[in-house]
Amino acid sequence: MRIIPSKARSLLFNIDFQLLRLAQMSL
Asked: What tens digit of pLDDT does each residue of 1-27 get?
């Protein structure tokens, strides 16, 4: 597993969280 810089990782996590929220809202 590659080590991802914390900034990029938090950014990816943020995008994931937004997508989850969008999916829940559309249900």
From this structure: 677 789 998 999 999 999 999 999 887
Neighbours of 27 (CB within 10 A): 5
> Taking CA 8 as the corner, what is the angle to CA 1 and CA 19, rounded to the nearest 5 degrees?
100
Q: Return the CA Rg of the chain.
A: 12
Question: Measured between alpha carbons, how far is 27 from 14 in angstroms, rounded to an integer?
Answer: 20
Q: In whole angstroms, what is the distance from residue 18 CA to residue 4 CA?
A: 20
pTM exceeds 0.70, yes or no: no
